[in-house]
Amino acid sequence: MKASHLILGTQRENPSDAEIISHQLMIKAGLIRQVSSGIYNWLPIGKKVLQKVEDIIRKEMNEAGAQEILMPMVQPASLWESSGRIDQYGKELLVFEDRHENRFCLGPTHEEIITDLCKNLLTSYKQLPVTLYQIQTKFRDEIRPRFGVMRSREFLMKDAYSFDLDKTGLDRSYQVMKEAYIKVFNKIGLDYRIVKADSGTIGGSDSEEFHVLADSGEDLLAFSDKSTYATNAELLTELQDGQDPSTLEGKESPDGKGILKLKRGIEVGHIFKLGKKYSEILNLKIQSEDKEINPEMGCYGIGASRIVAAAIEQNHDDKGIIWPESLAPFEVAIVEVNPKNKREISDKCAEIYDLMKKNEIDVLWDNREKRPGVKFNDAEVIGIPLTIIIGDRTLESKEIEIKGRQDEKPKLVSHQDLLANIID
Ligand code: ATP
Ligand code: MG
Fold first, then answer.
1. pTM attached to this predicted model
2. 96 occurs within a structural domain
3. Is the same domain home to 66 and 199?
4. What is the pLDDT of residue 239?
5. Rounded to 5 degrees, what angle do the CA atoms 353, 357, 361 make?
6. Which atom of ligand 1 is nearest to the CA of 202?
7. Which of 10, 125, 181, 342 has the least CB density, counted as fewest CB within 10 Å?
8. Is 420 a residue whose pLDDT tops 60?
9. Within this chain, do residues 276 and 132 fall inside the same structural domain, yes or no?
10. 3-class DSSP assignment, residue 402
11. Residue 205: pLDDT above 60?
12. Residues 29 and 168 reside in one and the same domain
């Protein structure tokens, strides 16, 4: 893509209301722009990154045998009355009336809708086990939206729901999803941990969270230094008794093995065994071989938009974002500098640009009429992994200057070696 055609939206100044680095950088790099508290536009570069997150999730869900559907964002409030969650969910649930005075809400999650949908869709045990998922906008009227898309009111979530005949089946479906989540977070390339969690207002028995480790994380996690014990610290009894969390560090692990260490995390995924909670209360019945049963359900969420912020929180420096390879909005930037021989340099850039495109390398050619400093700053704040620098010197020499996002200085490579250096 040519930068002259791209709506970049980068800005130099730090946004005054952005408390954490990912929020600052998402605004400065032109990924998002605020519309209202906790509500954002995604600009072209931001949308490209979000799409990459979505694609990785979608691929792993499909590989795990889950089937993609799309449910409505607007849900009848009556379903939430039937499940009893309308009061329990509280003010995070935005309820409104249509012109006929019917009450609706904006979906913060979709257990009610999916269970209702499956009432006509799943009739025989022969259809089970089945897992359905969607990637869709959620709305939660968070009491304190903050940190940009990290805790926003409108956000993109992947939510999946499994249906099984019995508990053994549920255990299996849960494990398949857990493994798919591990693949997703490994592919994205984040430093994350899986911890035991509280099932909150969703309900159900077992539940685990996936956390990206970062000092700015809102959750406190406790790990044993000798075993695999890992939990969201809000589950520890000391905390429930109202003790200061920092007194948890150094205590004996509840499994009796090792000492607890504390770290902060950003919750990016949450998986639950729901059991029969929704199938019973909303009366979803499936004909098994000899009788009608309420299926065992599981539900599995990933915060797609929060992942973008979490990835930045974990990967940045004072110049800007350093994307994990999997999420970089472009692989390479071509920057033209100080062109005395404007025409020849432009031709050289075009030649390299075509070479990149032919090799399916996602390239941004910064052909704007701007100072080199502006172009370098933009490439750095956006976090493009490699920059190719084309100037008068390139024409005179047989070598080309390239600079990795984290390199101090550019290095010279021959024309023949250029591709090999990029593809590596
Ligand atoms: P939190 O404790 O952070 O509020 P939650 O337990 O309410 O999260 P779930 O209901 O499990 O979240 O939703 C699934 C995923 O959606 C979460 O793991 C998180 O990544 C994401 N998510 C939840 N709330 C928000 C929000 N307000 N903004 C962005 N992402 C969110
Ligand atoms: Mg929440």
1. 0.95
2. yes
3. yes
4. 58
5. 105
6. 10
7. 342
8. yes
9. yes
10. strand
11. yes
12. yes
CA-based end-to-end distance of the chain: 22
Domain around 118: 3-317
CATH of residue 418's domain is 3.40.50.800
* Cα–Cα dist 169/367, whole Å: 57
Number of structural domains in the chain: 2
Nearest ligand atom owner, CA of 150: 1
Q: What is the pLDDT of residue 342?
A: 81
Nearest CA to ligand 1 atom 15: 303
Residue 33 and residue 41 in contact, taking contact as beta carbons nearer than 8 Å: yes
Whether residue 356 lies inside any domain: the answer is yes
Residue ranges around ligand 1 (CB below 6 Å): 109, 140, 142, 151-152, 155, 157, 200, 267-270, 301, 303, 305-306
Closest C-alpha to ligand 1, atom 3: 267
Q: What phi and psi, each to the nearest 5 degrees, are found at residue 393?
A: -60, -35
Q: Is residue 190 pLDDT above 70, yes or no?
A: yes
Q: Mapped to the 3 state alphabet, what secondary structure does 285-302 carry?
A: CEECCCCEECCEEEEEEE
Residue range 261-314, pLDDT digits in tens: 999 999 999 999 999 999 999 999 999 888 999 999 999 999 999 999 999 999
Find out whether 297 and 277 touch, Cβ atoms under 8 Å: yes
Q: Which helix (H) or strand (E) holds 58?
A: helix 44-63
DSSP label at residue 28: H
Q: Does residue 322 fall inside a structural domain?
A: no
Are 127 and 250 contained in the same domain? yes
- Residues 228 and 147 placed together within one structural domain of the fold: yes
270, 294, 302, 297: which is closest to 173 by C-alpha? 297
Q: Which residue has the tokens 């929020």?
A: 23
| Dist. CA 208 → ligand 2 center (Å) | 15
User: What pLDDT sits at residue 202?
Assistant: 60
Q: Are 75 and 112 in contact (CB under 8 A)?
A: yes
Regarding whether 392 and 244 lie in a shared domain, the answer is no
Clarify whether residues 238 and 197 are in a common domain: yes
In whole angstroms, give the CA distance from residue 392 to residue 228.
Answer: 58
Percent of the chain topping pLDDT 70: 95
Does 161 reside within a domain?
A: yes
